Amino acid sequence: MSDLVQVNNLCVDYITFGGRVRAVDDVSFSIKKGEILGLAGESGCGKSTIAFALMRLHRPPALISEGEILFDGKDILDFSDEELRKFRWADTSMVFQSAMSCLNPVKTIESQFYDIFEAHNVVSTKEEGAERAKELLQIVDIPPERLYDYPHQFSGGMRQRVVIAMALALKPKLLIMDEPTTALDVVVQREILQKVYELKEEFGFSVLFITHDLSLMVEFCDRIGIMYSGKLVEVAPSKEILGKPQHPYSFGLGNSFPTLHGELQEMIGIPGSPLDLNHVPDGCRFAERCFNASEQCRTDEPQLRNDEARGWVACHHPLAIDFRELQDAPCSELN
Amino acid sequence: MQTHVPVTSDQKITLEANDLCIDFAKERKSIFSPKQYLRALNGLNFKMYESRCLAVVGESGCGKSTAARIATKIYNPSSGQVKFRGQDITEIESGQALRDYRKDVQMVFQDPFGSLNPLHTIRYHLSRPLKIYHGLAKGSELEDRLVGLLEQVGLTPARDVLSKFPHQLSGGQRQRVFLAKTLAIGANVILADEPTSMLDVSIRIGVLNLMSQMKQEMGKSFMYITHDIATARYFAEDTVVLYCGHMVEWGSTEEITQNPQHPYTQLLLAAVPDPKRSIHQKLPTHRALETPMWSPDKTGCPYAARCPQAKPACSEYLPEAKEIAPQHYVRCHLFM
Ligand SMILES: Nc1ncnc2c1ncn2[C@@H]1O[C@H](COP(=O)(O)OP(=O)(O)OP(=O)(O)O)[C@@H](O)[C@H]1O
Ligand SMILES: Nc1ncnc2c1ncn2[C@@H]1O[C@H](COP(=O)(O)OP(=O)(O)OP(=O)(O)O)[C@@H](O)[C@H]1O
Ligand code: SF4
Ligand SMILES: [Mg+2]
Ligand SMILES: [Mg+2]
Prior knowledge:
The complex is a heterodimer of chains A (335) and B (336).
Chain A: E1 3-16, E2 19-32, E3 36-40, H1 47-55, E4 62-71, E5 74-75, H2 81-90, E6 92-95, H3 109-119, H4 126-139, H5 156-167, E7 174-178, H6 186-203, E8 206-210, H7 214-220, E9 223-228, E10 231-237, H8 238-243, H9 248-254, H10 295-299, E11 305-307, E12 311-313, H11 323-328
Parallel strand pairs in A: 3-8, 3-9, 6-7, 7-8
Antiparallel strand pairs in A: 1-2, 1-4, 4-5, 9-10, 10-12, 11-12
Chain B: E1 13-25, E2 37-49, E3 53-57, H1 64-71, E4 79-84, E5 87-88, H2 95-104, E6 105-108, H3 122-134, H4 140-152, H5 158-162, H6 171-185, E7 189-193, H7 201-218, E8 221-226, H8 229-235, E9 238-243, E10 246-252, H9 253-258, H10 263-271, E11 322-325, E12 328-330
Parallel strand pairs in B: 3-8, 3-9, 6-7, 7-8
Antiparallel strand pairs in B: 1-2, 1-4, 4-5, 9-10, 10-12, 11-12
Helix pairs in contact in B: 3-6, 4-6, 6-7
InterPro entries (chain A): AAA+_ATPase, ABC_transporter-like_ATP-bd, ABC_transporter-like_CS, Oligopep_ABC_C, P-loop_NTPase
Protein name (chain A): ABC transporter ATP-binding protein
Domain ABC transporter (chain A): 5-254
């Protein structure tokens, strides 16, 4: 698979009264064609900031101060307003946590679809727009006759489906989903994500999926990037993030989600609390909470390195335990 | 980890609910339309024990918080009763008995920001209950208690924390302070309504572990309201699954999570994210309808409209509870 998106050394700052806060610091990753990449990490680690930057939807006080975002080889940071207008929806679209914030409460679904089609000159008449919109509603399992309803006439789960149908309206190559199901019940959540997966298989788009629910992410994503206070600290195939974590923070996150099946293990989570971005220490940002920290960790900042055998990780002392083997072995314990 | 333990005969019941129902008047479209009621809870029964936790799980709006609000006397049930150590709590109306009840039964909320007064230091929050309930006004005894409380909830160095204001602490630390406050008050029954859902994921387990410790080492009796069933399995011995105000399945958490029998519980558990599964995990068939709103005049099983196995009887009357295995009850026509 080739890369659809390549993010290189991206830095995003927020300019605040207290000074400049670097919310995304020197982050690089790629998304392959047809791949679902997850971004996980605690609140405030910069996930949404990256999502907005990928759409170039970031607004002051956010500022992209360094880096490039290559989409199909072209740097979207160089795009003109006209190029950007075409790029959004047609190449990349985004679904947020709250469907209501993407939908206009005083317009019918039909006219909101029409606005998208019209802005991109893909339909010439209202009828044609309605036809296409009905097809789109159908692919997310909403009866086409509901096209003429207003957003408040739908349940939360249906609204999120409508938003997904709109996001797919122009057959984008990348769908960004920022906590798309956090406000929904688990049954609806699974149904929606299964639908997105099916559509992805059918149309071949890529997905950037953001959530703080690591269990869900492991189920849904091909690869997962773990962020800690503005830094990408590990990228690995999703099953390995839990089974063979290399970064102590990934290990700690994995150790924060009890499982529904299998033997109950005592979990430890991660001691301490997340970093205040106004006071970033020298060295590794995770050092204060890390069980493996050495003197070096407190002075030198670890760089994200790619080691063919192990994947991407930014840590001076990456872990080398395979918990999958441990768990399968008789009489072995995690702790 | 040990949450799979049956109730023993020497464990004391703390709170107990018998056939609780509560109706809320719906907003009327006009003054001429007839008064309508929403039945938020229909026939809730549970027993809570010392040193045990009862998880109440179910989707949004199923009545979880309402159950806790009845138990803390914020709402009065329309019928049925809650007993505390054998006494009907509606009889506790004023005076010392009410103060004792308020001291003994405490709620912990989702939002650790809202539950502490931003204008007061942590010292103030903890010393007030020590003074009011235990007559500890000042001196080294008070100091020792304050430090001891903060150490018990894992907030160290305690002396630094005492002089801080709530906004100077993280969400997890604030939730710990709040738990320290329930300890200061001396509560024995703690009703925790989604106590970790607003916290950062890495510190949720720490708060759950702290509550486990309060449960195991201090004998506290917990109700844990959550929609995160995996954490219920981690923390609670007993579980009630609510659907639309009705108990559909209840008993030992391990039984419910590993061997769910009610069609709704099966659907719910199949949908819970689990890293050992894949997103393709098939959900049991169900009709994709919205959860109905219950009202006092409705009959039958609340899940009947969505249930693929529904029989005619299902929409006619609600079946009795049936013990299908030790410590495992369902209310479903399929088991009659
Ligand atoms: N408008 C803003 N002004 C100043 N700082 C901001 C602004 N928006 C975000 N930040 C800061 O940037 C950092 C990253 O925020 P971001 O919203 O990307 O986090 P996130 O990972 O999406 O978190 P969450 O899981 O809570 O959605 C945070 O520390 C936040 O405080
Ligand atoms: N004071 C009230 N007046 C009217 N209706 C109410 C009141 N309190 C709760 N309800 C209704 O009772 C039902 C149960 O509400 P409750 O808050 O107990 O749900 P919940 O299970 O805690 O949901 P969530 O997971 O969203 O917190 C809902 O339909 C709610 O709208
Ligand atoms: S670099 Fe050091 S402190 Fe940072 S995560 Fe690795 S071991 Fe821990
Ligand atoms: Mg975000
Ligand atoms: Mg609630």
